[in-house]
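Ligand: 2-acetamido-2-deoxy-beta-D-glucopyranose. Inputs:
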Amino acid sequence: MLLRRPTIYLWLGLTSAGVPEKLGCANPPLSPKQRDLCRKKPFLLPSIQDGARLAISECQSQFRHERWNCSTSDQPSVFGHELTSGTKETAFIYAVMAAGLVHAVTRSCSQGNMTECGCDTRLQGLGSPAEGWHWGGCSDHIQYGTWFSRKFMDSSSKNMTSSRGGHTPDTMNQHNSEAGRQAIDKTMSTDCRCHGVSGSCAVKTCWRTMAPFERVGAYLKDRYEHSIQVLDRSRKKVRKKEREHRRVPVDKYKLIHFNKSPNYCLEDRRLGVAGTRGRRCNRSSHGSDGCNLLCCGRGYNTHVVRHVERCECKFVWCCYVRCRRCESMNDMHTCK
Ligand SMILES: *[C@@H]1O[C@H](CO)[C@@H](O)[C@H](O)[C@H]1NC(C)=O
Ligand SMILES: *[C@@H]1O[C@H](CO)[C@@H](O)[C@H](O)[C@H]1NC(C)=O
Ligand SMILES: *[C@@H]1O[C@H](CO)[C@@H](O)[C@H](O)[C@H]1NC(C)=O
Ligand SMILES: *[C@@H]1O[C@H](CO)[C@@H](O)[C@H](O)[C@H]1NC(C)=O
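Predicted complex:
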């Protein structure tokens, strides 16, 4: 079954492409609740846009070697069918978008751009003087961003744990968004800086910091690979064995999906699948970017491409660098 197309992504798509200030709160297809939130907190619009951009570019980077490469379209729905297919890809999109929003809002809080949030002051003054360190500087305070991401992206505040077991499209999306937010928390780390005469590190100041978003992306990619298939409660016919098997509770860090993914090999316009024809592959790789896997066994074409670069650069006194132009011919392989 198809999941209901969530309007928020229509809007995130628009904001990632355009200028949010111009869009304002009234024009985009926001739900009444989101419109209300948007009106109350217009200063968060740039962060919403940053978060969407961050998430989309990270998705494309994590999946650049996969058959499904997270390509987006200019269509307002951005992700097309993958947003509603109930697959692992849907799960990843929701998680990374929710995480991107937390990350961008928190960044803005830490940089002092916001009156409603700032650095995490709860740790200030604490530490272990005996061991020569204390908390200081600006610890990222993810609570505000997390709160906002929930408020903005979750369609309902209903309890997601259903007594009957299984999920609805809404609870699946909400679960995966939450897993994305948890990923920010899970990947946080502590950074320290030394003080003391000539770098003796007699005293250290430490603070909590969010991981760069690439690390969050890699973490979520791993979750994607271990995504758990759960029961779609709206499906009528489910074998008993399957029903029992899929009823296992899933912790909040894991991603969940309903449907098996298509193989993404061949173009299917109806499903919005681009197929891998024409994709560049690596003949010597046994991974997902290898020609065998990426081209789905269809074979590949080899083209020779000329590559020109600056090389053998020498520093010439004084003061410039002189290089030669080097040409090389490389094989490039693309899927048939
Ligand atoms: C994904 O692959 C398609 C071809 O299947 C290509 O047209 C598109 O540019 C790729 N997108 C990204 C983001 O690499
Ligand atoms: C914070 O504000 C400054 C100055 O307006 C801006 O350059 C910077 O990009 C902002 N940071 C974030 C994370 O929004
Ligand atoms: C949701 O339901 C579970 C089990 O029924 C309960 O333990 C939990 O506290 C509830 N959470 C909320 C936010 O109501
Ligand atoms: C192709 O794959 C091999 C083996 O994984 C790797 O060493 C090489 O750098 C890759 N080449 C390109 C162009 O990515």
